[in-house]
Amino acid sequence: MSxxxxxxxxxxxxxxxxxxxxxxxxxxxxxxxxxxxxxVMRIAPGDAVMLCDDLTGEWVARVAxxxxxxxxxxxxxxxxxxxxxxDFWLCAALLKKPNFDLVLEKATELGTGRVVPVVxxxxxxxxxxxxxxxxxxxxxxEQCARTxxxxxxxxxxxxxxxxxxxxxxxxxxxxxxxxxPVAEAFAAHKGAAAVLVGPxxxxxxxxxxxIRAHPAAVAIALGxxxxxxxxxxxxxxxxxxxxxxxWKP
Length: 249
Hints:
CATH 2.40.240.20; Alpha/beta knot
């Protein structure tokens, strides 16, 4: 006798939706999400779709109907509660579009709680399309099976960021000129935290001095090499998650 296939299957497509989910809900999915389910994933009535609402967690739904413009899903049960997101922010200077896209994607996959784009004097970009950025983060969250989305702050100038910084949150400053060894710094400062990384050309001397003078700032060294902005962001998040975040057993 053959074994009963696992339900829901691990291959079931995943979507974030704006509707608060509950058992028995009939949810119409339209637009790009309907196209993805119907044309890309080629789902059929009876198939499973995993849903998250960024409020209650992860739910399994069954496809009730596949139409030309909409897919109707019937929500069955919750499979996981919304994850506890570590209180960790990434404050990343804006980079060239493909590089910052990578930062948004990997920050989401690594479990960051909030991303704050920062404008500095040496930034090659000074604007961010929030809708596009949000789409990148949602797609990354769906891919890595997160049940919560990171927050996304407005692009803000460095001086404004420092002036309005919450004093209870430590600001780890990835300084290419060196600082406290990263593992030592993270071990010494628990609780709410953020890491600040610079643009392609780095921070200028006035910016570096202003950051170091801030009472919440702790300059850190991310190893013996000078890292690209996107590499520094990914490395900083990964190290914090391993030492202070939700990667620990």
